[in-house]
Write a structure and sequence with these properties.
Elements lengths: L1 E4 L3 E5 L8 E6 L3 E7 L3 E6 L5 E5 L3 E4 L11 E2 L4 E5 L4 E5 L11 E4 L2 E5 L5 E2 L8 H6 L11 E2 L2 E2 L1 H11 L8 H4 L4 E2 L11 E5 L5 E7 L4 E6 L1 E7 L3 E3 L6 E10 L5
Antiparallel strand pairs: 1-4, 1-7, 2-3, 4-5, 5-6, 8-13, 9-10, 9-12, 11-12, 14-15, 16-22, 17-18, 17-22, 18-19, 19-20, 20-21, 21-22
Length: about 260
């Protein structure tokens, strides 16, 4: 059994309880595999990143088969917030939302036809990778939210996942899994825009990730999405002038830089 997300932003929880921890969010148009069904809740797997969790079943609609959203035909919302309209309502969508059956400023979702500004739509395979930094800057000053994936609240790996999705690269949800992708870069001095930098704690666990803007600055979500200086040791806090995060590895996923 599968389902499609029918609201702009849906919480995925650790357990089937409204008071449970938020682990991630699902965006409008994303599709999931449903593996368990309760009276109010369903346990789902995101078909893009395989992330698991509990969702209020009112927030999705069952579909007979999964929708293929590969980057050769996926139509996606590239701006931080845009609106779609039908005859009776306006819905605001976060960046990364997927529009099924889109054509010429319109798309159909379960027999309801919506309109959207064509300038707020793109096909993932048309995005130039060097736009990664400008896409990331759309999220500047967004507050940090554990499990968040949108302009009103986002965490460090959520920022990376959404930004790279908008640039045609699908990544896992968590920083530790994102770390497995790409080519190792040895020094911060050799980095280019779009490289990912990972940071660990004293136990050696990956706890943070950010996107390089150049070889001296990084954009990341820590308290809020911000740009800070970085050197070969780590991030230098713009507030205290001290190191806030220690580098453990640098990876490159964008090779035409």
């Amino acid at each position: 059994m599968h389902g499609i997300i029918i609201h702009p932003l849906v919480s995925v929880l650790k357990s089937n309880d409204e008071r449970s921890e938020l682990t991630t969010q699902l965006l409008f148009g994303e599709t999931v595999r449903i593996t368990e069904v309760l009276e109010k809740w369903v346990f789902v797997e995101n078909l893009i990143d395989n992330y698991l969790g509990w969702v209020d079943r009112k927030n999705l609609r069952p579909i007979s088969k999964p929708i293929q959203n590969d980057n050769y035909n996926k139509i996606i919302v590239p701006v931080s917030a845009c609106k779609i309209v039908d005859s009776s309502e306006i819905i605001y969508l976060p960046a990364g939302s997927i529009l099924q059956n889109y054509e010429n400023g319109k798309f159909v979702n379960f027999d309801i036809e919506y309109q959207i500004n064509p300038e707020h739509v793109q096909c993932c395979n048309t995005v130039r990778y060097e736009k990664i930094t400008s896409v990331a800057k759309q999220f500047l000053n967004a507050p940090y939210l554990w499990g968040g994936k949108n302009i009103l609240g986002i965490d460090c790996s959520g920022l990376v996942q959404v930004v790279f999705s908008l640039c045609g690269i699908e990544l896992p949800r968590d920083a530790g899994e994102q770390l497995e992708k790409g080519m190792v870069i040895d020094s911060i001095n050799d980095t280019a825009a779009g490289d990912l930098v990972y940071f660990d704690n004293d136990e050696g666990s990956v706890i943070h990730v950010g996107i390089m803007l150049n070889n001296k600055q990084i954009i990341h979500a820590s308290g809020w999405v911000k740009i800070e200086d970085i050197d070969n040791y780590g991030i230098i806090s713009s507030q205290t002038g001290e190191y806030s995060h220690r580098i453990c590895k640098i990876k490159r996923l964008i090779y035409n830089v």
